[in-house]
Amino acid sequence: MKLTVYHAKLLALGQDVFDTPDAAVHLGITAGHANKVLTRLAETGHMIRIKRGRWLLPGRLTPLALVPHLTAPFPSYVSLQSALYYHGLISQIPSVIYMVSLARSGQRCIPLGCFSVHHINPSFFFGYELLDGGRVRMACPEKAVLDLLYLGSARSGLFRNWPEVSLPRGFKTRKAMHMIRRIPSQRLRVLVNKRFTVFLKSATG
Predict the structure, then answer these.
(1) What is the pLDDT of residue 155?
(2) I need a surface site. Which of 17, 89, 143, 163 has the fewest CB within 10 A?
(3) In a 3-state reduction of DSSP, which class is residue 182?
(4) How far apart are CA 112 and CA 106, in angstroms?
(5) According to the model, what pLDDT value does residue 169 have?
(6) Does residue 94 sit in helix, strand or coil?
(7) How far apart, in whole angstroms, are the C-alpha atoms of residue 5 and residue 71?
(8) Rounded to whole angstroms, how far apart are CA atoms 179 and 132?
(9) Domain 63-202 has CATH 3.30.460
(10) Is CATH 1.10.10 the classification given to domain 3-56?
(11) What is the block-wise mean pLDDT of the chain (205 residues), using blocks of 10 residues?
(12) Is the preceding omega at residue 73 within 30 degrees of 0, hence cis?
């Protein structure tokens, strides 16, 4: 069967992202054959490989909406500098899309951009809102700040320094303090609380 026919059938799936086995079932071919077809489609620009065995049809999703698909089956949401920029707390556009996840930390680059994944404890995985019809999980302003301080408190020293931030009028300090109290580790909770106090004093606006 011609590659164009396979492509047309995949478009008819009505899905933005799919796995190789799903494509194989729909095309009526083996998983190995489907992988070759998808690879060839990716080489011609008609498909994007976002991770091993997972593919995206170009033009179907924005980079922000792609975030949960990059770490599946582990959940994730946009946070840190990317969420701070989205909410207007910083003015500089991040060079990568920052995301918090239950998946392992690491950087993943695809034709749509580079994504910086940062692992967080399941107990602190909350504080995001759904945007774009539920396609995008975005940290609220308070959680984006706390994720930065939380990860900056780790022994690795990553995110130890934060960017210059201008807090909007709607920023809820009490909400952030309530989130800090949900950190199960007393040592980390104290560290984040201290860093948050310093952060508030240094924030402009």
Answers:
(1) 63
(2) 163
(3) coil
(4) 17
(5) 84
(6) coil
(7) 30
(8) 25
(9) yes
(10) yes
(11) 85 87 90 93 91 89 92 96 95 94 94 93 96 94 96 75 84 96 93 93 72
(12) yes
**Which pLDDT score is estimated for 138?**
98
Rounded Cα distance between 82 and 62, Å, is 14
For residues 82 and 91, give the distance between their C-alpha atoms in angstroms, rounded to a whole number: 11
> Which has the closest alpha carbon to 38: 13, 72, 73?
13
Look-up: residue for tokens 């920023």? 171
**Cβ atoms 89, 149 nearer than 8 A:** no
DSSP element (H, E) containing 149: helix 141-152
201 token code pair = 């004093």
Whether 63 and 57 have beta carbons less than 8 Å apart is answered as no
CA atoms within 13 A of residue 169's CA, in its CB half-sphere: 0
Instruction: Catalogue the E-assigned strands of the chain.
Output: 17-19, 48-51, 54-56, 76-78, 97-101, 106-110, 113-119, 128-131, 136-139
pLDDT at residue 158, rounded to an integer: 73
Q: What is the pLDDT at residue 114?
A: 95
In angstroms and rounded to an integer, the radius of gyration of the C-alpha atoms of the chain is 20
End-to-end alpha carbon distance in the chain? 62
Q: Tokens 């690795």 sit at which residue? A: 156
Can you tell me the distance from the alpha carbon of 97 to that of 81, in angstroms, rounded to the nearest whole number?
Answer: 8
The secondary structure of 19-32 as a DSSP string is EHHHHHHHHTS-HH
Domain residue ranges in the chain: 3-56, 63-202
| Residue owning tokens 């959940």 | 75
